[in-house]
Amino acid sequence: MAHKDEKRKEARRLFVFDQQSIPLIAVTIGVSEGSVRRWKRDAKSNGDNWDVARSAHLMAGEGLETVVADVVEQFVTLFKATINQLSESDEISPAERVKAMASLSDAFNKMVSSAGRVAPKISELGVANDVLQRQAEFVREHFPQHAEAFLEILEPFGESLVEVYG
Questions:
Q1: Is 137 exposed, middle or buried, given 0-12, 13-18 or 19+ CB atoms closer than 10 A?
Q2: How far apart are the first and last CA of the chain?
Q3: How far apart are CA 93 and CA 104, in angstroms?
Q4: Same domain for 82 and 131
Q5: Are 124 and 112 found together in one domain?
Q6: I need a surface site. Which of 26, 30, 58, 128 has the fewest CB within 10 A?
Q7: 102 and 139: one domain?
Q8: pLDDT digits over 47-58, tens only?
Q9: What is the number of structural domains in the chain?
Q10: 12-41 residue pLDDT tens
């Protein structure tokens, strides 16, 4: 019986923390998919919902931040590729091109806004980087004699911001 309990605990751990699928869990711990599904169902009826625990784990800590960062990165890559295609296409009229670019810009703004709400650390890091860039421009324009010293500390400070925000 203790061996079965260990496998059940391992199945839950693999499902919740490692985000593995039930078929993969079954193969990994050497039981049938039906057993894993039954353990999951029984746990739910006893108040331990593996799906809720999995979602909570994903949303806790860096899990959600990582997912949002990946989605934003994929979106930006597609956004850039689409903009490039639109600019290079001879088959689309200028008016249609402008319309498509406006639509893409709207989608981009919505993506950035929703990513900031879902994963505020990413948004905070973006604001922090923007402030640093603006400060660097300000120093260059108004205090050029201090620009070299400012740039000397800017990079290490930027790295410390990444540690704090993301």
A1: exposed
A2: 44
A3: 16
A4: no
A5: no
A6: 30
A7: no
A8: 888 887 777 666
A9: 3
A10: 989 988 889 999 999 999 999 999 999 999
